[in-house]
Amino acid sequence: MKRIEKLKIQSPLVVCITNDVVKNFTANGMLAAGASPIMSGEKAEAHDLMHAASALLINIGTADRAKVELMDRMMEAANEKGKPIVFDPVGYGASDFRVDITEDLLSRHQVSLIKGNGGEMLALSGAESSLKGVDSTEQTDTAEIADAVYSRFKIPALVTGKVDALATENGIVTMFNGHSLQGKITGSGCLLGALTAGFIGLEKEFTAEAVVDAVSYYNLCAECAAAQMSRPAPGTFISHLIDELYLSEDRLLQDRTVKGL
Ligand SMILES: Nc1ncnc2c1ncn2[C@@H]1O[C@H](COP(=O)(O)OP(=O)(O)O)[C@@H](O)[C@H]1O
Ligand SMILES: Cc1ncsc1CCOP(=O)(O)O
C-alpha cells in the first residue's frame, strides 16, 4: 500500500507533547492528513498512551519544569515499548533552560529523529547560530547543519528551511519543495514534526524514505495550497494547507524534488 493511503487508512496514533501555541493547529493538520493525534498533560498516563501509540513527538516550544517531567516519563515509556520518538528542540539556543533540558532529555532517552530549523539545529551542533526567539535567521546551508548534528549525536537529523536536509548514516538527502508562506505562519515546523512522527510510526521504526515522504508531502500540499489562492497570504493559507493535507493523495509525491535518496 502507498504511504499516504496507508496513513489515511491506518491512522497511526501519535502522542504529541507539544507547545501551547501550536496544539490546535497540530491536531487539525494531523487529522486532515489521516493521522490520529492525542495531546497529554499528565505523566501518570504515559504507559497507557505509549502502549496504544505508534510514535511520540516531543516539542519543547513552551516547556517548563513540570512539562519536562512529563516529557521525561513519556520518553521513558516510549523507549520501554519500542515506539519511535521525534524530538523538536524549538528555540534551542534562545535560553540556557532550553539548552539544558534538551541536552538532558537527549542524553537519557533514545530518539529516532531530531528535527528543527536551521538556527536551532546549528546551535544544537555546537556552533554559533543566529536565532531570534523560535525563528531561524540562519544562512548556513541546511545540509551542512544536518551533517553537523548527525556527527554530534549519531541520530538522524532533519533541518528545515527553504531547502530541507536529512542526515543519516547513509549520507544527506535534500528536499526542495515548499512555499515561503510556510515561514509566515506559526507552527509550520511543529506540525511537520508531528506528521513526521506519524509517518515513522507507520513503519514502526525510522526510515529515511518515511521522513522524506513526510516532508515532501507536507511541502507539496503547501505549494498546492498557495496555488489555490488569488491573493496568497498567511490567514487563508492555513485553511488551504489543512484542506490540501486532507484532499491530496500519493500521486502528489510524483512531483517531489529530492536529491540523494
Ligand atoms: N522559504 C521557504 N520556502 C519553501 N519552504 C519553506 C520555506 N520556509 C519554510 N519552509 C517549509 O516550512 C516548514 C517549516 O520550516 P521552518 O520554517 O524552517 O520551521 P520552523 O517553523 O520550525 O521555524 C518546512 O516544511 C520547510 O520546508
Ligand atoms: C511562537 C512560539 N513560541 C514558542 S513555541 C512557538 C511556536 C513555534 O512554531 P514553529 O517553530 O513551528 O513556527
TrEMBL record:
Pfam families: HK (PF02110). InterPro entries: Hyethyz_kinase, Ribokinase-like. ATP binds at residues 115, 160. The keyword Protease does not apply. The lineage of its organism: Bacteria, Bacillati, Bacillota, Bacilli, Bacillales. Belongs to the Thz kinase family. Substrate binds at residues 39, 187. GO terms for molecular function: ATP binding; hydroxyethylthiazole kinase activity; magnesium ion binding. NCBIfam families: PRK09355.1. GO terms for biological process: thiamine biosynthetic process; thiamine diphosphate biosynthetic process. The gene is thiM. Pathway: Cofactor biosynthesis; thiamine diphosphate biosynthesis; 4-methyl-5-(2-phosphoethyl)-thiazole from 5-(2-hydroxyethyl)-4-methylthiazole: step 1/1. Catalyzes the phosphorylation of the hydroxyl group of 4-methyl-5-beta-hydroxyethylthiazole (THZ). Keywords: ATP-binding, Kinase, Magnesium, Metal-binding, Nucleotide-binding, Thiamine biosynthesis, Transferase. This is Hydroxyethylthiazole kinase. Its cofactor is Mg(2+). SUPFAM superfamilies: Ribokinase-like (SSF53613). CDD domains: THZ_kinase. Its EC number is 2.7.1.50. It comes from Salinicoccus cyprini. The keyword Methyltransferase does not apply.
